């Protein structure tokens, strides 16, 4: 019990860990709130609780947006450190990663402008900036899925030629994590498309609980991966 509490504390003390926890609580609240808010009028107390959870989720989402105002420099540092990728890495994985870094780097300033417009700090319409941000986020997620698929194919080839049982076990573990990454990115991509203008695929058609479900699935996988990385 004490180890679990200490693990949670360590996670909350780091920016990346705290963001993942806030994200999970945010989408979890939206999932439960979305379900409860659709209860019949006879269950007024459940509906009120659901609406409160939706408001709580919106506040946490706004909190994450404000905190991302300070992410640009760390993203620049990461992109600069990766550059064009290690020369011994597969060329397809390298270039997909480079394009992903470009999309992520452009995402932050666009979101900052949209946030500043909503906060009435600058006099521009925020709608188009939120749209550009969503497109960049969706592009990054799609590239992430393509990268994981490519990595899976490479791992599968290695698995066929690997004779060491320990090596095969490690390769299978890596393949499972890549599959989870695909599920996580696909869940987020479904939400990114939902936030596109109506008429584009299923833009605007998800109920609140489904947005919460997709985000919760993605967030829980992110927490699992973070725990595995720190182990």
UniProtKB/TrEMBL annotation:
GO cellular component: peroxisomal membrane
Pfam families linked to this entry: PEX11 (PF05648)
An individual GO BP term: peroxisome fission
Compartmental location: Peroxisome membrane
Keyword tags: Membrane, Peroxisome
InterPro entries for this protein: PEX11 (IPR008733), PEX11C_met (IPR026510)
The keyword Protein transport appears for this protein: no
Protein name: Peroxisomal biogenesis factor 11 gamma
Lineage, top ranks: Eukaryota, Metazoa, Chordata, Craniata, Vertebrata
